């Protein structure tokens, strides 16, 4: 590796088997790119990962072109995670296509350490995931989406939307088609409060 400020050039050819992509990208210190059990990772052009980024696959992990992943974020694929082009990760973001299997039918809650519920994750192009966002298994995020900081995405998100919360919900539509005749964003009758809810003219945060 050759140091470039806090980052370092890395060569896919020197990575572990199963990792493919262009000859070079930028990856911060203490970061990990690994495969296991025949998994693959394909990384697009002009990839940049900050410090302590963790990429792991025992299935299929695909990262598009011009993707930036900020520090302390992780993407783990047990089956399939596909990330589109021009996606921006804040710091401490988690994208996981699996979760521990839970059985609540007995006298105690049984949380398995070795069995997982797995479902593919798809993240479209031109998406911004704010700091500390979590994307859980089985979710599809459309193109042109913003996910607010600290959100937990538990269901599919349509293109051209701003979502926030735990669980994440639509705050407003984005793009030129999202404006009504009066120029106000469609689907919002008033300003958004500090908790992400709509407020009337007489409400205060």
Outline of the structure:
The protein is an all-beta fold and about 200 residues long. It is about 0% helix and about 40% strand.
Task: Provide the gyration radius in Å.
Answer: 19 Å
Low-confidence stretches: 1-5, 187-205
Taking strands numbered 1, 2, ... along the chain, how are they ordered across the largest sheet?
Answer: 1-2-4-7-10-13-18-21-23-24
Number of helices: 0
The number of E-state strands comes to 24
The structure class reads mainly beta
Shape: globular
Helix content percent band: under 10%
Largest sheet: 10 strands, mixed
Mean pLDDT: 83
Description:
This protein has 205 residues and is mostly beta strands. Helices cover 0% and strands 42% of the residues. It has strands at residues 2-4, 7-11, 19-20, 24-28, 32-35, 40-43, 48-49, 54-57, 60-63, 68-69, 74-77, 80-83, 88-89, 94-96, 98-103, 110-118, 121-123, 127-129, 134-135, 140-141, 145-147, 152-153, 161-164, 169-173. The strands form four sheets. The chain has a ten-stranded mixed sheet, with no helix packed on it. The chain has a six-stranded parallel sheet with strand order 3-6-9-12-17-20, with no helix packed on it. The chain is globular.
Keywords summarizing the entry:
mainly beta; ten-stranded mixed sheet
Topology:
Elements: E1 2-4, E2 7-11, E3 19-20, E4 24-28, E5 32-35, E6 40-43, E7 48-49, E8 54-57, E9 60-63, E10 68-69, E11 74-77, E12 80-83, E13 88-89, E14 94-96, E15 98-103, E16 110-118, E17 121-123, E18 127-129, E19 134-135, E20 140-141, E21 145-147, E22 152-153, E23 161-164, E24 169-173
Parallel strand pairs: 3-6, 4-7, 5-8, 6-9, 7-10, 8-11, 9-12, 10-13, 11-14, 12-17, 13-18, 14-19, 17-20, 18-21, 19-22, 21-23
Antiparallel strand pairs: 1-2, 2-4, 15-16, 23-24
């Amino acid at each position: 590796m050759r140091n470039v400020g806090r980052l370092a050039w890395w060569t896919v050819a020197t990575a572990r088997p199963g990792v493919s992509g262009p000859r070079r990208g930028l990856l911060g210190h203490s970061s990990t790119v690994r495969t296991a059990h025949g998994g693959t990772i394909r990384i697009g052009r002009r990839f940049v990962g900050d410090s302590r980024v963790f990429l792991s696959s025992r299935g299929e992990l695909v990262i598009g072109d011009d993707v930036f992943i900020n520090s302390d974020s992780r993407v783990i694929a047990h089956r399939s995670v596909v990330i589109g082009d021009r996606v921006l990760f804040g710091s401490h973001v988690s994208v996981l296509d699996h979760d521990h299997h839970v059985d609540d039918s007995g006298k105690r809650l049984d949380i398995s350490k070795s069995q997982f519920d797995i479902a593919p994750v798809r993240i479209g192009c031109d998406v911004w995931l704010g700091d500390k966002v979590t994307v859980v298994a089985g979710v599809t995020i459309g193109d042109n989406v913003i996910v607010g900081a600290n959100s937990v995405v538990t269901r599919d998100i349509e293109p051209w939307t701003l979502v926030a919360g735990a669980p994440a919900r639509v705050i407003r539509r984005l793009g030129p088609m999202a404006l009504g005749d009066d120029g106000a964003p469609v689907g919002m009758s008033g300003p958004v409060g500090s908790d992400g809810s709509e407020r009337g003219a007489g409400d205060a945060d």
